[in-house]
């Protein structure tokens, strides 16, 4: 790992990220990745007590947790892009929600979980969610392309 990637990882973990990984995106079509070669994937764990309290669908506590974690992910994505720009890279932060879902196929151009698996954060489980060794699927993720 380069000095910059170590600095980014440490800074993001200090700001509240739970997992940070770096991915080579060269095999992904250029149009899906804004013609950028690399990506940073950032995961933030969800509160286990909130997740365990869900029995019959999302609860008010889950909605609150979801909003809080998404706000943190937005901040972390922007911070990552800023750090990369300070070091001379062009960088595009993603957003944790509303990533441009195609209403016909219900798919996105570049799923966050695709980047996360390429960054070594986890794998796609039978639930079709990213599953991590550390937190299972109780996480939210964001990416930054550079």
Commentary on this structure:
The protein is of the alpha+beta class and 146 residues long. The chain has one domain (3-145). 35% of the residues lie in helices and 18% in strands. It has four helices and six strands. The protein has helices at residues 3-14, 48-52, 60-86, 112-118, and strands at residues 19-24, 38-45, 92-93, 123-124, 130-131, 139-145. It has a four-stranded antiparallel beta sheet with strand order 1-2-6-3, sandwiched between helices. Strands 4-5 form a two-stranded antiparallel ribbon. It is globular, with a radius of gyration of 15 Å.
- Helix percent band: 25-40%
Alpha plus pi helix count: 4
Q: How large a portion of the residues is in β-strands, by DSSP E?
A: 15-25%
Number of strands: 6
For the biggest β-sheet, the strand order reads 1-2-6-3
Count of the domains? 1
* N-to-C CA distance: 16 Å
Judged by helices, strands and strand pairing, the structural class is alpha+beta
Give the uncertain stretches in residue-range form. none
Largest sheet descriptor: 4 strands, antiparallel
Q: Report Rg.
A: 15 Å
- Write down the overall mean pLDDT: 93
Overall form = globular
Order of helices and strands: HEEHHEHEEE
Summarize the SSE layout with pairings.
Layout: H1 3-14, E1 19-24, E2 38-45, H2 48-52, H3 60-86, E3 92-93, H4 112-118, E4 123-124, E5 130-131, E6 139-145
Antiparallel strand pairs: 1-2, 2-6, 3-6, 4-5
